[in-house]
Each structure stands twice: as structure tokens, then as C-alpha cells.
Write a structure and sequence with these properties.
This protein is globular. The relative contact order is 0.09. With about 270 residues, it is mainly α. It has two domains: about 170 residues, Chitosanase, subunit A, domain 1; about 80 residues. Helices cover about 70% and strands about 0% of the residues. α4 packs across α5, α4 runs antiparallel to α8 and α8 crosses α10. A three-stranded antiparallel beta sheet has the order 1-2-3. The protein contains ten helices and three strands.
Amino acid sequence: MKNTYARAMKGIHISEGGYVNHPKDPGGATNFGITQRVYDSYRKDRGLTARSVKQITSDEVAAIYKTQYADKIRYDELPAGIDYATLDGAVNSGVSRGAKWLQSALGVSSDGKIGSQTIAAATKADAIHTVKSMCAKRMSFLRGLSIFSTFGKGWTSRVARVEAESVSMAMEARGISKASLPIALSSESRRASEDSAVTKGGATASATGAAGGATGTTAASGGDWSNLAGVESILLIGATVGLIVLAVYLINRSRVQRERAAAYAAVAAGATA
């Protein structure tokens, strides 16, 4: 495997700890990010008896990550940074989903299988832009899952870490100097922090507007909305709901930007050390 692989695996092991069997995780029991189903398949293919994923060995973990994930996304053929971002997405959400985020970011057919067309597009693409686009699409997908309320905080932090580390890999592959790398990463952190602050302010304004709109109209009508025409009531309710939805969206975006700022700052600090 190429030289980014060990670094990518280090990042994945930070996110994928030991044995977990969360009742709300549709993947069921996992150990080091490997599900019981994947482990069963791996052992069956090798003529070995099934056993609990709790008993998986470090050699098996390494072999599964390579054969079931890295090889399937053609890790060694992807540009630095794009390789790690794609691999982590595949481990977290499945090979097909990880491939689709890459393909969508590249603007090629999203069939969930990385072939020559995807490799060619990835090779020609701006790796930094592609990584950021992939991670944004990944976050959008994860936010839409019903279990986001349970796992969302960890997922948001993970995707931010992957983005920052992947962008750092891409910058290094471009030949950025060791002195300039932490400066560039700190700049990314600062922009994300500024975006978080601005977005948070917008969320507060939207929430205040929603509350003020309802309260103001109630007061104006003597506390009784019955004197409003049907269309007026619908428009008022629609506007209020719209502001609430916008506020929720902006709050979530602010949290994502805050995590991105922290992740880029951490990678910048590591690059300085």
C-alpha cells in the first residue's frame, strides 16, 4: 500500500475503537469498525468457523480493512487525501456509499463502484476541493438518518477530522513546504470559525424572528388569530415555520463549522510539532 495508508488507518482507528454493540446501530455488533456480518463473511471465505467479532485478531483487522475496503475503493490509485476521505466513508457507511460520495463530488456516474472513469476523474480533479465536497455530501447524508440524534455528534467530529487530515495530505502531495503547511491549515480553521460565528448569528436572528412574528401578530389581533383571513393565517404560519426550519439548519451548520475549525486547528498543531 502507498505511504498515506498507514496514516489513514491511524485516523480510522481513532474513530473505530473496540467492541461496540449499540442497540440503535443497524450494523449491530462491531469491533474496530468491523461488523459481525463482515467478519463472518471473511472467515467463511477462508474455510474458518464463525465466531464472535469480539475475538477478531489484529491481523484479521488489518486484512479485512485492506481486502474489503481499501482494495475495493482502489485506494492506491486515488490521489492523496481523496484516498483517505473515500476509505473512511467506506468503512463508516459501506463501500458503495463511500464511492458514491466521491463520484458525486467528481460529477461522474454515481453507481457506487470505483472504476477507471472515477479514477481518471479523481486524478484530474482538485483534490482539496474534492475532499471538501465529499465531506459536505457525507454530512448531508448523515444528517438525514433517523439515528443522527444518537450518533450525530460523533459523526460530525469524525467527518471534520477526516476532512482536515485529508486536506493536509492533499496539500503535502502538492509539495507545500513544512513551514507553510500549518499556516495553510490554520487559515482553513479560521475561515470555518468565522463561518460558524456568522451562521450562529443568523440562527439566532431566525429564531427571534419566528418568535417575534407569532407574538407580534397575536398581540396585534388582541391575542386572537381568528380575525385573520384563511390565506393570511396560512402565510403567517408558513413564514414562522420557515424561520424555525432555517434556524435549525443554521444551528446545525454552525456546529459543523465549529467542528471543522477545531479539526483543522488540531491538524495544524500536529504539523507544527
